[in-house]
Amino acid sequence: MKTARLFIAGLALAGLTTAASAGTLDEITKRGELRVAVQTQGPPFSLVGANGERTGSSVELAELMAKEMGVKITFLDFDWDGLIPALLSGKADLLVADMTPTLARGMKVAFTTPYMYTGSTVFTKADGKFKTTEDCKAKGTKIAVLLGATGEKEAKAAFPDADIKSYKGGGPLLLDAVNNGQADCGVNDVSAVKGQSTAYPAGSFTIMPELLSKEPLAFATRYDEPDLLVWMNLFLNQVTIDGRLQKNLDYWVNSDAWKKDH
User: Fold this and answer.
1) Which positions make up the signal peptide (predicted)?
2) Phi/psi zone of residue 257: left (φ > 0), alpha (ψ -120 to 50 degrees), beta?
3) Model-level pTM?
4) Could you tell me which residue, 33 or 53, shows the higher pLDDT?
């Protein structure tokens, strides 16, 4: 009898857990809206196109999520260091960006399984005196990094004698800093650097061939949204199988084919 009571209690607890964890998806469905935190940092992950439309690799994947959910999508802009606070505050249901699921970030938010891998690279002005990564290690070299990004930590480790200059905002600020001489070198995600440097005349920057790191990219939810996290992983698995993820990455990340359209 005792065993039966424990079994029934277990079923009841499982039922309560299931009911509680279904909350976010139910809320999104009832609201008819998926709220997504983004940063308009520039191509290839999130940008405003020539006609004023919001687009990019992460943006299009989020739009696919909303389409599969059958709800409309609302994008909410934040600086890089404001993305996780916006998610934790409940302003957004999830965040999509070129964000690495570090252990430190994982203490705050729940990441999906990685959907691609990238890494941090070093870049300089093509006609400047810094030609290699080793050149950027010289004492006093000004290194531009993004506040709160993994590149900030990696630059401090790779260039201990350099003057690390952290910028609050998006990756184009780092390219601007190197281009106008405020910084000698910059460190950021290689996919972002390649995409964002297309806004400058061809050959403006030298992007070093070696990477400072190998990093996965993932999307994030809150830990109190387990149903949404399960669904997002299911979504990423599905678009991987049916080829929509690779089509997205080939267009936005692995080429500059997007330039003629945006």
Assistant:
1) 1-22
2) alpha
3) 0.76
4) 33
